[in-house]
Amino acid sequence: MPIPGTIGAFAIVPCNDLPGALPFWERLGFSRSGGDSNYFILTGWDCEVHLTQAGTGPWSVPETNPFGVFIRTPNVDSIAARVDDLIIRRGGILRHREWGLCEFGVCGPDGLLVRIGWPSRLMSDGGAAADQS
Length: 133
Prior knowledge:
The protein is mostly beta strands. The chain has helices spanning 18-27, 76-82; strands spanning 12-15, 31-36, 39-44, 47-53, 68-72, 95-96, 101-107, 113-119.
């Protein structure tokens, strides 16, 4: 798949095991569309994420990784269904939040927080049907 001509800002995520991180992103619905052996460009759901090898030794913060990626896509329900067993919230809740997003989070490689969401007002149910707790 060629790299799309997309305007935007894209996260560059360091990984201790770059090839080992790929299956996680593929499960989310991304596929490798470019890069090289130390840099993967992934595309999916009209979004793009870049992964880079963290270095020759282990990256020192996997247990306390301060970084995260937010994927904003109207396909939030479809992605949640793909990774239901990975959702962080107790009970695996995809829900509308008080800040106006229907979202969920999963823990990715090296402790990376990956949140996936879409504005509640743009959801097909208008934000009315999801769990509000």
